[in-house]
Amino acid sequence: MEIQEIKQRFGIIGNSPLLNRAINIANQVAPTDISVLITGESGSGKEVFSHIIHQMSPRKHGAFIAVNCGAIPEGTIDSELFGHEKGAYTGAVGERKGYFETVNGGTIFLDEIAEMPLGTQARLLRVLESGQYIKVGSSKVEKTNVRVIAATNVDVYDAVKSGKFREDLYYRLNTVPLKIPPLRDRKEDVYLLFRKFTSDFTDKYRTPPIQLDEEAQQVLVNYSWPGNVRQLKNMAEQLAVLERDRIITGQTLLTYIPHEASGRNLPMRLDNQPKEDFSERDILYKVLFDMKRDMVELKKLVADIIEHGGVSANYANHSQTINQLYRDIELPGNPEAQFTLQQPVNTNNNGGNNTGNDAYNITHEAEEVEESLSLIEKESDLIRKALKKHKGKRKLAANELGISERTLYRKIKELNL
Ligand SMILES: Nc1ncnc2c1ncn2[C@@H]1O[C@H](COP(=O)(O)OP(=O)(O)OP(=O)(O)O)[C@@H](O)[C@H]1O
Ligand SMILES: [Mg+2]
User: What proportion of the chain, given as a percentage, has pLDDT over 90?
Assistant: First the structure.
């Protein structure tokens, strides 16, 4: 297939030599059964390329499944990929088919491959070399015919050097390396992509067309795009929806660029981000510690309320304390609105029974407080905020939350975010 046809068919925008080179490699390797290791920064298009390869292969009518190795807990990844027998481990009630069984004849896309645990790597190597695997808790050798495409946004060879990734598997996967260039290395594509995305989004939301003035075009092209095409796409969507003035200036555009990078036209590399990788335990401690502090304050508050027989002159203080508490634990919405003291208004036929009303208010508030202190709620709230702040970039969000990317993936999945 011609390169232009491929772009057309898969909605690939851009004409830079590096992008064209990647498409050519995908095109050549697609019809073979060779494993491909796709490398590239977050948001650069790795998943898009995995689809291209599958769709242009003889397996295109077979199944395709994308598995994020970073998102599956270490304890279940073997069973997800290879299946398990009934009773293979505590909680394994029935038997389970793994992806290597269900996708037989198709393609598995193993995303975030560097996160795969060593034990699973051994199983994967075996299946790549011989098509054989064994379900967890079984001793029977099964056969399958699956093509593997793997992807990573870190240097897997670093993981090899530090003993976290099997060298033999690395070479086996990397038979054909496919590097997706970061957006900053294909500046000629930036404006093309931007125009395509804004026109798609203004169509979708039925808003007037967007244009960039000269200076804005400069900003756009010279920005370093750490989140690559995904970041550009998100920005286009925001502009299409939010901006009243449809001719965008450089100044306006800068407000859509995360502030640590704005004003700087120099390429900013992701690797410059501080690499803090606290364990899940650390964040749990942190959350528990905060909860404990909040509980102490709550206890004081409740004691105070009881002591003063429900409503008292101190009520305003309680209300303030609760507000402070809410600020501390960063609840969504507007806690002030919920917790500012208001004189009970007797609009019902309760006949001015103030005590009743107040009692109701207090229980109601106490419930709210309890509910919002839920660890899970707080955690998902923080995660949501971090993701929003970093425009969905999990790596940056994980950094900010002080947890590993792997933990974040898992949490997103667990909490159904
Ligand atoms: N050349 C391109 N033309 C048009 N859209 C693109 C192009 N490259 C990527 N995209 C779009 O950018 C977004 C991000 O791409 P994709 O999900 O493939 O990135 P990724 O490398 O897998 O990211 P991550 O590492 O975060 O998983 C998707 O919406 C995809 O459709
Ligand atoms: Mg991806």
Answer: 55
pLDDT at 208: 92
The torsion of the CA quartet 194, 23, 154, 231, rounded to 10 degrees, works out to 10
Q: How far is the CA of 190 from the centre of ligand 1 (A)?
A: 13
DSSP 265: -
With 90 as the cut, is the pLDDT of residue 70 above it?
Answer: yes
What are the pLDDT digits (tens) for 324-360? 544 444 434 333 333 333 333 333 333 333 333 333 3
Q: How much distance in Å is there from the Cα of 275 to the middle of ligand 1?
A: 24
For the chain, domains (ranges, CATH) are: 3-181 (3.40.50.300), 184-265 (1.10.8.60), 290-365 (no CATH), 375-415 (1.10.10)
Which numbered atom of ligand 1 lies nearest the CA of 47? 18
Which residue's alpha carbon is nearest to atom 9 within ligand 1?
A: 45
Ligand 1 binding residues, C-beta < 6 A: 11-14, 40, 42-48, 153, 193, 229-230, 233
pLDDT in tens, 286-302: 566 567 667 777 888 88
The number of the ligand 1 atom at minimal distance from the alpha carbon of 393 is 26
pLDDT digit string, tens, across residues 40-53:
999 999 999 999 99
Q: Which ligand is nearest to the CA of 46?
A: 1
Within a 10 A sphere around the Cβ of 367, how many other Cβ atoms?
A: 10
pLDDT in tens, 356-390: 333 333 333 333 444 455 677 778 888 888 888 88
Q: Are 208 and 202 in contact (CB under 8 A)?
A: yes
Tokens read off for 197: 């995305």
This prediction has a pTM of 0.66
Give the ligand with the smallest distance to the CA of 183: 1
The closest residue, in CA terms, to atom 18 on ligand 1 is: 45
Q: Characterize the bridge pairing of strands 141-143 and 132-134.
A: antiparallel
Under 8 Å between Cβ of 187 and 218: no
- Are 57 and 26 in contact by the 8 Å Cβ rule? The answer is no
Q: Which two tokens stand for residue 205?
A: 């939301």
Order of strands across the sheet that contains 147-152: 64-68, 107-111, 147-152, 36-39, 176-179
Q: Using CB atoms within 10 A of its CB, is residue 240 exposed (0-12), middle (13-18) or buried (19+)?
A: buried
For ligand 1, atom 8: residue with the closest CA: 45
DSSP for 21-36 reads HHHHHHHHHTTS---E
